[in-house]
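Closing statement on the 6-O-phosphono-beta-D-fructofuranose sub-project.
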Amino acid sequence: MSKLTESKEWQALAKHQKEIAKRPVRQLFADDPQRFKRFSCRFNDILFDYSKNHIDSTTTELLVKLAHATGLGEEIEAMYNGEPINNTENRAVLHIALRNRSNRPIKVNGRDVMHDVNLELAKMRHFADVVRSGEWRGYSGKKITNVVNIGIGGSDLGPKMVRHALKPYTRPDIRCHFVSNMDPTDMMNTLRGLNPETTLFLVASKSFTTPETITNAETAKEWLLKTAQERRAVSKHFVAMSTNLAAVKQFGIDPENMFEFWDWVGGRYSLWSAVGLSIAIGLGMDRFEELLEGAHEVDEHFRNTPFDQNIPVLMGLLGIWNNNFFDSHGHAVMPYDQNLDIFPRFLQQLDMESNGKSVDKNGNPVDYATGPIIWGEAGTNGQHAFFQLLHQGTQLAPCDFLVAAVNHNEVHSRHEKLLANFLAQPEAMMRGKDREQVIDELHASGMKDPDEILVQSKIFPGNRPNSTFVYDKLTAKTLGSLIAFYEHKVFTQGTIWNINSFDQMGVELGKQLANAILPELKNGEIIHPHDSSTQALIEEIVERRQTLI
Ligand code: F6P
């Protein structure tokens, strides 16, 4: 057994789980009129209600003890102090510096990074302003009307999610597109209908070596030059956001048009850096700074609030409780907010790339479950797709529900209908429906002697753990806070599981093999040893392409 599962805190939780599992959550509500108050927190306009999880006061006490015993407080300090907590890459982890609105010095190797952060923010402000005002012109003297962000993973999902979430605040005359996929259809579908004279490409890549991004950027450059005819046009239509100046230059982007960030910004944490340029252009830099402010306030809360009142810590601990002690599978995130429909996808990368690990920080295999599979869908769509499993399936999947009290589109009483659904689903998941209720309902519907098969199929077990967030309206500041809650939740869990949440070695093998297979597809000659399935697939695809193209 590992140190973690052997610890007295872990063992105490395991023992407590056996006891509390016997008491349904609806019973816990009935026994404690203060339950909602006891298990909810407020942060600015955000209410976090976690009372529908299978917990009582002993659970939170024991979980907080686990957090202390695993050194969460010390690890938070290490992050804020710029220590190299990404131990496999020997890097600091400082997305908190990108939104450090207090401007308090944050040092990496003795050097305050805030100077560079502020310079880049000022450069972003200037650039966003000149594009928005129309001062920045394309090669033929026309204003920019379309911005295309080329990037993948964190260089795509973060800015895309934020742009989408804050659509009500964006300028309709500068449209923004996101291209990420290696599939050329992504780029070709986007370019169709765009005019090279009025299109600006933002090439976002921390490494500037990611094949998808470089390939898409090459295609975009070719498309521009076909019309512009002169290479000088590139400097009017291409900017880069990267840590790799040499590669940016080599690609042919003017270093003047490069926005810098640093190796202590993880890809999935980069929307707060220059990678957020598409956000700043669409929303204006003031709104981008509101987003930073919302996250910064959470950073302060995370660092300074006792764990039993600390929202991201509680989120992390509840995840551990469900995952490791109730053996739950996956974690669903359901924003009842159409503009947040990309949020679950963004969280997939944030959480799964960070905590999808099976060796600990000392290189030992773990003997406990780590990061869950994250998925989700904007409400109410999920209700008509996968909620069946959430209510009655054999796998327990905890859920987060998010909603705004006020919709950006208050059309008749439609938002109330959405809110009714938002409220009903968590209640149904927690409460369930027992045999007696089912029979009463069937009797009331006129069925005197209901069939037992029908009765059984209508029973809901309940006890499905879930948490809810309610906020006033989805503003830039609120969104910044929500994202930061999830970022620090992932940090909390990674720390307790003793894994490095900040590398992503698991994405490398597939990349290596793709590099090896590419020449084999080109000339149809197998160079590397493969299993018989892969070899046959290569041969078949080569043959089909030779006949079909
Ligand atoms: O391959 C995974 C990954 O490295 C992600 O972590 C990252 O967000 C994405 O690829 C893109 O990387 P880059 O910004 O260097 O192009």
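The mean pLDDT is 97. With this model delivered, the sub-project is considered complete and its resources will be redirected to Aim 3.
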